[in-house]
Structures are given as C-alpha cells and as structure tokens.
Amino acid sequence: MIRTRQLIRPLLALALAACAAIGFAQQQVQQGDPPARVASLSQIEGSVAYAPPGETEWADAGLNRPITQGDRLWVDRGSRAELHMGSSVLHLDGQTFLDVAALDDDVMQASLNDGTVNARVRDLQPGENFEIDTPQLAFRATQPGDYRIDVDAKQGTTRVTVRSGAALVFGAGGQPQQLRAGQEAAFTGQDLDRIALPAAADNGFDRWAQARNRLEDQSVTARYVPRDVVGYQQLDAYGSWAQDATYGAVWYPREVAVDWAPYRYGHWDFIAPWGWTWVDDAPWGFAPFHYGRWAQVGTRWAWVPGRLGPRPVYAPALVAFVGGNGGVDWSISFGSNPGIGWFPLGPGEAWRPTYRASSIYLSNVNRYVAYGNRYPTTYVHQHRPNAWTSVRVEDFSRGRPVHNSWQPVRAGEIGRAQIVNQPSALPPPRRFVENNAPARLRSLPPPQAMQPAATPRAQPIFQGQAGPRPPVAEQRSVQPLAPPRMQQERPVPQPRQPEALQQQQQIRQQQAQERAIQQQQRQQVQEQRQQAQEQRQLQHQRDAEAAAARRAQPMPQQPPRAMPPPPAQVHPQVQQQQAPRHEPREQRVRPQPDPGEKGNGNGPDEQGRGRGHNRGG
C-alpha cells in the first residue's frame, strides 16, 4: 500500500504540473484574441461625438456602434448619454469627456478628464476591476453600488460621491483612502489632499440616471438573458417574448418593414480588432445582432438567444458571407460590378470569425448557442432567398446604408454560392467612416482632453500579435494608476500593431487628404457666405441712411381739410331723406313700352321720373 502511494504521488505531481502548463499555454494562445466584452451607447439625448484611436476629428456617435478600448466620447453641452458595458452602466452628463482605456471581462478602466459621470456597478466578479481615473486620482469600486464622480478641469478638482457600495481612491503615494456608502470627498492635486466643496445636490441629470436605472431593474428581457448581454434592456419597448416548442424563449420585433430581414437595415463599419462589424439602425439593434441566432417561425423573424449563460462573448456580426473578392468560384455581381452577400446564422450553427483567433476563443464565442464546435456545411437560411442581402462591394467597403442599395439574390444562383471563410475573401476597407457624419457640436472638448491626463495603469487587454504577456491572474493584481510625472520615470513598451490597425492607419491617411479637400471647400463656401452677408449688411445700411434722409426733409404744408359735421348734429329726418341717395340702386331691365300706350304719361318712364322729381322736390 505504501509502495503504491509512493508511486502515485510523483505521478499526481506530474499531472498537476502538466495541467498548469496546459492552462498557461491556453492563456498564451488567447493573447491574440479580441476582447470578449464591449460597450454600447444605449441612450443619447442631444449631441454625442466619438473619436476612434488615432483620430483627431469627432464624428456623430449613433446608437449600436460598439465602443471599445481606445475610443473617446464627448457629450455636448445640454446633452446626455447612457453607456452600457456588461451589467454595469455609465450615465454621462453634458460637457463630459470620457476615454475608454481598457475594457474586457476582467477590467473596465476609463479616464474621466472633465464632466460628471454616474456609475452603476451591478455586479463584480472575483478579480474584476472597475476603475475610473481622473487627473487627480484613481477611483476603484470594491462593491456593487451607485457612484458619482465630478471632475472640474478648470479648478483642478475631483469629487467622489458614494451613494451605495464602497470604493477606494488612490493618489500618487499609492496608499488608498476608503469611502463607504453615504460618504463624499473632494480632492485636489495628486496626493489626495481633501478640500471643502459644497455637497453635490441631486439635479435633473441625477433624476434622469435614477429613472433609467429603475427602468432597467424592471426589465422583462432580464428574465430570459443574463444582464451581461449588452443592449438587452432595449428589447423591452420594441418587441415581445414568447415560448416556442422548438427554440424555447424567442423574441419578436414589432413594427418592422415589409422587406425586413436581419442584417439588412444598417451599415458595415471596420472596427479594430474585429474588422467588419454590423451597426444596425433600429433602437433595439445591438443585442440581437451580436449574440444569439435568428430563426423564421412561420412568416415572422424571431431572435433566439439560446442558453446564454454568464459572460457571453461579443461577436461583430453572426452571419455567413458569400461572394466578395477573394477569388472564390462564385461571386455576386451587379452587372459589371462585383458584389457581396450574407445571411444570418440559424439556431445551433457555429460562427466562424473572419479574423485569426484561438480555439479557446472559438469555443467561447459559440458557447450556449451552437450544437458543438463543428462548422456546418449547409445552413438553415442558405436556401431561403428572403434571408439573403447583397450589395456592391463598393457600397460594402465604404460603409454605406445597406437598405438603400441592396438587391435580392436569384434562387437559381443560390445553389452555386460558396460560403466565404477566409479573411482575405472580404473586401478591404476604403473609407469606413463615410456613413458617420461629422459632429455638429455646440461645445468642443478642452484641448488637453485629447491627451488624457490619466495614463492607463494596465496595458491594453488586446495586444494583437504582440509577444507573451503574464497570465490573467497577474493581470488582475495590477496596481492602480500612477500620475503622469511618475509614469515618465519608466519607459512604456510599445506593442506591435495588429494588421487591422495598420490598415486603419492607411485609411486615416487617405481620409486626412479627403478631409483637407473638404475643409478647403468648406472655407470657400464660408467665404462666399461671408461676402454675401457683408453685401446684405451694406445694402441694409444704405437703406437705413436713405430712410433717415427722407425723415429729415420738411413736410409740405397742406390746406386744412373741411371736416364734416359730427353725426350728432344732423337731424334724424334729414338722415332719413338723404340715406336713399347713397344706397346703390337695384338695376332693373326696363321693359319695352307697348305701342298702344305710347305717350299717355302713365308708362313706367313717366312714373319713375315723377317719383324721382317728388323725392328731389
């Protein structure tokens, strides 16, 4: 027995070491995988602008565009925005600048350079960090709760209010201060020097954020999908849930177009590191197009979330592509123009990304909704023409609205179609922001906000094709933010850029040239408008001078007019006699006299003249 135990112990130790090595290897494989979690603007009131990494110009931020690390948001004066990231939500007040530094399952880190944020942290998993950095401190929530952070960039202050929960604030010294529920503190500098500020009173923005939180607490969709599904709360007002004998719980959208189909009303955008990403036009169009699958139940389209569990993995678009320009045997064409088509994946069908990913990522992204990890050779919607959508490659690569130019695919061509599985088969991006209009803002972010004062405390989660990084467990134990003056003492390694970012840099160079031309044209138009305005002002001044000259000339003397006597001095009888003279006579046709009565003095003419003579006498 002892001999057996002696043999088992080294074997067990060897097995544990092998498992640890496999686990570490799996973590290393996942280095090139994109983040599993993103954020989305679920509510916009007013004007909200965004700028992707490396961009210096702002574009109008619309609903349903994924927000990931490196993206910056500016909420205009008098505007508001709601940003969902998993089960947590940020409410942004007007004139607020937010920079998303890191976003994944383990870390949510944002830099607040100016403005006000209400943060609602619904759940914190072990090892998960929820952090908001300001120019003065780093705020970290240690418990689920409601928090408010105010940053005054001009005064150089940060105020932290803990309505519920608990939090830690870190300064330059690294020694944190704890804030509990009901506490509020204001700081200046980077050494957590407290100052006295008036208490933050609830205003219209706070009441709006609280009302949005209550609406989310009452969400019906939360009974069918986990709250980690980004955009789930938008489904309540635009559809209904039902139980299907085949698929279980399904969601039906209301008030869609007659020719509506999934992934038809919206546009494609090239967003790193995923590449081509679907951005839907519907106010509910985030969760059903990045999680779950679509099915046709009778004549209606139904979203099938599947057995979604905690932490579902975000996907850019759950479709199968057909055509493109990758040298496949068959491609969709619009006359002499090449085309590309797609259709939604059905329940149980595994999704294959068009970018490189590890086997662990492929397993996680298809978890809960696919029957195994085998990719289907035929798809349930592949032979349904009403499920197909196709456009020209030119429209696809420039991100133009699909519903304006899509065409159905003929049933005879569907049988010869080949599914695109390689990234090279999709068209490269040309000007993916063409559908994003330039921002029209009443106020601009401060210039220093373009360079966030808070330097991220952790390296970005997604490093592309960069070298090895520490295990995830070490990533969770990183220290909070160090101020800029401390960061300058140690160099920050620059990771290699992924292929998608290199493509974006080329696109930005082309866009910079196009923007320069557009800027020159706008300046010319502005100069023409200014000249026209000056001419109108000059003409207005001349008209005013002429009017003033006319008023300065003496008026000619006119003889006084004879005023009629007042009505009270006129005798009533005279008025009664003279009134008929001013009354219009009724014109009558005079009858021809009878020849036998001519000259007898009793005809109508003689009688009329006689009456007139009597009235005159």
Automatic annotation (TrEMBL):
<feature type="compositionally biased region" description="Low complexity">
    <location>
        <begin position="450"/>
        <end position="460"/>
    </location>
</feature>
<feature type="compositionally biased region" description="Basic and acidic residues">
    <location>
        <begin position="580"/>
        <end position="597"/>
    </location>
</feature>
<feature type="compositionally biased region" description="Low complexity">
    <location>
        <begin position="546"/>
        <end position="555"/>
    </location>
</feature>
<feature type="compositionally biased region" description="Low complexity">
    <location>
        <begin position="528"/>
        <end position="538"/>
    </location>
</feature>
<feature type="compositionally biased region" description="Low complexity">
    <location>
        <begin position="484"/>
        <end position="515"/>
    </location>
</feature>
<protein>
    <submittedName>
        <fullName>Chromosome partitioning protein ParA</fullName>
    </submittedName>
</protein>
<feature type="compositionally biased region" description="Low complexity">
    <location>
        <begin position="570"/>
        <end position="579"/>
    </location>
</feature>
<dbReference type="Pfam" id="PF20245">
    <property type="entry name" value="DUF6600"/>
</dbReference>
<dbReference type="Pfam" id="PF04773">
    <property type="entry name" value="FecR"/>
</dbReference>
<keyword id="KW-0732">Signal</keyword>
<feature type="domain" description="FecR protein">
    <location>
        <begin position="71"/>
        <end position="167"/>
    </location>
</feature>
<feature type="signal peptide">
    <location>
        <begin position="1"/>
        <end position="25"/>
    </location>
</feature>
<dbReference type="InterPro" id="IPR046535">
    <property type="entry name" value="DUF6600"/>
</dbReference>
<feature type="compositionally biased region" description="Pro residues">
    <location>
        <begin position="556"/>
        <end position="569"/>
    </location>
</feature>
<dbReference type="InterPro" id="IPR006860">
    <property type="entry name" value="FecR"/>
</dbReference>
<feature type="region of interest" description="Disordered">
    <location>
        <begin position="528"/>
        <end position="617"/>
    </location>
</feature>
<feature type="region of interest" description="Disordered">
    <location>
        <begin position="440"/>
        <end position="515"/>
    </location>
</feature>
